[in-house]
Specification:
Helix 3 packs across helix 6. The protein is built from 16 helices and 2 strands. Helices cover 68% and strands 2% of the residues. Strands 1-2 form a two-stranded antiparallel ribbon. The protein is mainly alpha-helical and 466 residues long.
Length: 466
């Protein structure tokens, strides 16, 4: 059942200059199952059970090992392959001697991650209305990071009495029961998508239907990558922001957490970092969806918060970074413990970095969502986002693996984050509107023109037959 309503009401999520179709949402348990938030929660638990545990180990620095070089190379492989495949996935939508195995596994992880995260971005941004995008991103980000919180909690519990610089073997191997438990959780995460609703049947909370990606041919879908840029080139101004969005992890995890703290302190830092991400995404999500402010005002407010947080945490971090180098804190040196007098101030820096990270990722996704409501375009933009961010991450993890000075990595991180904000400002000023209109949807207009041409051809063919 559907009806036509005037778009001027303001709640439309499928832009059209004349009218939109509003559908009746399912009732009862079926309505709960097909509710967009239910589907986002299910999607979030996929990432909670799979990539969330990866974040927990990465956050320990060096993958929790004494020598972080192999881990850095592996992470570089993850992001290098991730960057390549993510760029095109929007169109598809789809021990010491064993170091080679770790790096190869990282490369394979990057391939699969590209398709998972691109699909995640498209679903997360297309199931919600324009007024809900910040909250939906926050819900996903909170549940996803619970995986890292759980993993960090387990790591801290197992290493709470350790004052060494590497994790206990139990963190990775442990008894057979622990292995079976992790395996079951991972399988559960893989099977959840099979239980999710068909996107074709999804109706948003305002009654508008989710428009499914149009897949006429491989050629036209890859051409859509070009169309998405040419018809909306302002997305290019967000690329520096995307590039910085995973770049800062290397200094935070390997060059700060791993360099200065023993495993007990690193585990606690890791726990506080991911827990603060949940808080940070919720805080910025509420601001970005505030009904008291117009969307343009919310965009500038979010940008201002990121600017303030960026300089706060980096000035703070510079105060610590100038006191040590790679040579002064070798892997086998005595590291800071949770009972050291200076530890509380250092862990607070990790907390603020976690807040900044969550706010940065949430705002980046929100800006993408403010540019379009078209699932096709959102999938392509999500692919751009993950591709560019992974390219930056691959580069900096490799720089860390070859031993670039900590200060160099830190300053490059600071400069790139500021550059991301500088380039995004004119994009917000020139491109973000209070609502999305059809003129913004280049791919949708292209497909409408193709459909009109096909319809015209069919009519002409019918007339010739007569």
């Amino acid at each position: 059942m559907s009806s036509s309503v005037d778009e001027k009401g303001g709640s439309s999520n499928v832009p059209d200059n004349d009218s939109i179709s509003v559908y009746e949402r399912p009732k009862g348990l079926r309505g709960v199952y097909y509710h967009p938030i239910t589907q986002i929660v299910m999607l979030a638990f996929v990432c909670f059970l799979c990539p969330g545990m990866f974040n927990a180990l990465t956050g320990l620095g060096g993958g929790g090992q004494v020598n972080p070089t192999t881990s850095a190379n592996s992470t570089c492989a993850v992001y290098a392959t991730y960057a390549f495949f993510a760029f095109f996935s929007g169109a598809i939508n789809i021990h010491p001697g064993a170091g080679w195995f770790v790096v190869a596994s990282g490369a394979l992880l990057g391939v699969t991650a590209a398709f998972l995260w691109t699909a995640q971005g498209a679903i997360m941004l297309s199931y919600c209305t324009e007024a809900q995008k910040g909250i939906f991103i926050s819900i996903f980000w909170a549940i996803f990071n619970l995986g890292a919180v759980v993993g960090a909690t387990v790591s801290f519990g197992q290493n709470i009495h350790s004052t060494t610089n590497s994790v206990s073997n139990g963190t990775y191997v442990g008894p057979a029961k622990r292995f079976i438990g992790i395996l079951i959780l991972t399988i559960l995460g893989v099977t959840i998508p099979l239980l999710m609703a068909d996107p074709d049947k999804m109706v948003r909370t305002d009654g508008t239907r989710v428009v499914m990606p149009r897949l006429p041919s491989w050629k036209s879908e890859f051409h859509g990558l070009w169309v998405a840029i040419v018809t909306d080139p302002m997305i290019l101004l967000l690329f520096p922001m995307f590039f910085a969005s995973n770049y800062f992890y290397t200094w935070q995890f390997n060059d700060y957490n791993s360099a200065l703290f023993n495993i007990r302190a690193r585990s606690l830092n890791n726990f506080m970092y991911w827990l603060s991400q949940i808080i940070g995404s919720g805080m910025i999500g509420v601001i970005l969806d505030s009904k008291r402010l117009r969307r343009r005002v919310r965009a500038f407010t979010g940008w201002g918060i990121l600017l303030a947080m960026t300089f706060t945490v980096h000035i703070w971090a510079y105060y610590y970074q100038r006191t040590y180098t790679r040579a002064s804190v070798p892997p086998d040196s005595q590291k800071m413990d949770i009972y050291d007098p200076s530890y509380p101030a250092h862990v607070w820096l990790m907390i603020f970095y976690g807040l900044l990270d969550a706010m940065w990722q949430t705002t980046s996704f929100w800006l993408i969502g403010a540019m379009s409501n078209d699932t096709n375009k959102l999938a392509i933009y999500a692919g751009f986002y993950h591709s560019i961010q992974s390219a930056g991450a691959a580069g900096v993890w490799r720089m860390d693996a070859i031993g670039l000075p900590y200060m160099n990595i830190f300053l490059s991180t600071w400069c790139l984050v500021v550059a991301g904000l500088v380039f995004s400002f004119p994009m917000i000023y020139l491109r973000i509107r209070d609502t999305t209109v059809l003129e913004d949807e280049g791919l949708m207009k292209r497909d409408q023109e193709i459909n009109n041409m096909k319809a015209k051809g069919m009519i002409e063919s019918g007339n010739e037959m007569l």
